[in-house]
Amino acid sequence: DIHMTQSPSSLSASVGDRVTMTCRASQSVRNYLYWYQQKPGNAPKLLIYVASYLESGVPSRFSGSGSGTDFTLTISNLQPDDFATYYCQQAYSGPPTFGGGTKVEIK
Amino acid sequence: EVQLLESGGGLVQPGGSLRLSCAASGFTFSYYDMTWVRQIPGRGLESVSVISASGSNAYYADSVKGRFTISRDNSRNMVHLQMSSLRVEDTAVYYCANSKGGYDSWSGYSDYWGQGTLLTVSS
Fold first, then answer.
1. Whole-angstrom Cα distance, residue B15 to residue A28?
2. Which of A64, A71, B57, B118 could staple A48 via S-S, CB 3.0–4.6 A?
3. Exposure letters B101-117 (e unless 16+ CB within 10 A, then b)
4. B2 vs A: CB within 8 A
């Protein structure tokens, strides 16, 4: 199975900050990398597909980059609604696997 | 509006069995592979099983292989997860979701998710 590692596991930030988190795959997943946002008590919500494409309806302050084994999710101008946990997932080789998550907390 | 509504969760003793169901609406169900993803409360996400759109192929995580069976009824827009020989470590919220766009036949990502149903395995 492909192992996905996210860092940091948590971070504290303020409204208006630019936030960056990373996801590393144990082997190349090409660009089959997806980012989700999850809030407590809710299902994950797809934000980014194929590493860098913004899902419909997702604010443009979210952006994704990377290919191969190293990927980044950036939130520019952090908003109160963005405080949540973010997961990456690879869809290159089954079983699909998720990273451990990055929790974005209010500073 | 896309809806996935899970049901069937609850409390079961170790070694017991339970069937989860997921009712889909608002999209062409028979076009999509479907998956069950679980989340231990406060922890990360684990793909448990995937079933192909036709129902002819199914894949399982090693942790549930031989104990869980996924099935679907395209005439009723339903997907099920039959779970047996349940263990304490199966305790989790189980999400039903679609699965699409993967490179190989059992990888995929999800843009439709249910709200989840909680399975608790405890004596």
1. 39
2. A64
3. bbeeebbbbbbbbbebb
4. no
DSSP letter at A41? T
Mapped onto helix, strand or coil, the DSSP state of residue A97 is strand
Return the biggest CA–CA distance within chain A.
38
Whether A38 and A45 have beta carbons less than 8 Å apart is answered as yes
**Which residues on A lie below 8 Å from B101 (Cβ)?**
32, 49-50, 91
- Looking at the predicted structure, is the pLDDT value of residue B25 above 90? yes
Radius of gyration of chain B (CA): 13
The tens digit of pLDDT for each residue in A72-107 reads 999 999 999 999 999 999 999 989 999 999 999 988
Place of tokens 């990360």: B44
